[in-house]
Amino acid sequence: MTSRKPVNRLTPKRQPGAEQQSRSSASRTGTPRNTPVRKPRVTSTARPVGKRQARAEQRPAPARTRTARIRPPRTPRSGRSFWTLVAGCLIAAVLLGGFAVVAALRPGVDDSNRAFVDNKATEEVRAAADHALKTVYAYDVKNIDGYRDAAKQVLTGKMLADLDKYADTTISAVKQAQTSADAKADPIGVTLLADDRAELLVNLVVSATKNGVAQQSVAGPIVLHMQKVGDRWLASDIVDQ
To answer: ∠ CA 158-161-165 to the nearest 5 degrees?
Structure first.
């Protein structure tokens, strides 16, 4: 009996032909090979921090620009604010009505004011005022000696008393300066006219000349008080405005 050599089936490396034969047979029969199972990849949103991400984090974040919001216009509130406005208008109307009544009654003012109601009397006192102002403020250096007597004819009360005090000084100054003066009262408004007194608002212009050459000129509004003495209107006081 002949002895056979033992076949080592556990060491396929020594039998390359057997390994190739087994692979081909396995592919033919469709038996799967014992291949290692690959683990599925786990996808995650967190990526490892790389150099680019680190650089991006070091960069300063751009400043956020706030866009101005356009607010729609507020609509007027109804209700209480509306009625408050209505009440304020009513109160203002009542106050204005009260002032109108008071002004119509004119407390403390003489109701016998006939200015522009009696046209004849208004024109009479206006003409007397114009004549009195021209007599007092207009003069000719050649006829200055008769200034006092002429002024006394149109003055009364305080203005007459002032004339007696300052007439001599005024006449002396005019002679030394050798000046003449012209007076113009225009316009003349009668603000009050009673039986024996009147009040007028006048724009008075006084111009001085010397040897026919214009010197100084003074202009301004004045309030002239007139008083009726007998049947004549005389200037009693002047209030500069």
So the answer is: 135
pLDDT digits (tens, 9 = 90+) for 179-200: 999 999 998 999 999 999 999 9
Q: Measured at the alpha carbon of residue 69, what is the angle toward residues 65 and 73, in degrees to the nearest 5?
A: 165
Q: Is 15 exposed, middle or buried (0-12, 13-18, 19+ CB in 10 A)?
A: middle
Under DSSP, the state recorded for 139 is: B
24-73 residue pLDDT tens? 444 444 444 555 555 555 554 445 545 555 555 555 555 555 554 555 55
**Whole-number Cα distances in Å, 128 to 136, 140, 151:** 12, 21, 13
Instruction: Tell me the domains of the chain and their CATH numbers.
Output: 119-240 (3.10.450.240)
C-alpha of 211 from chain center: 53
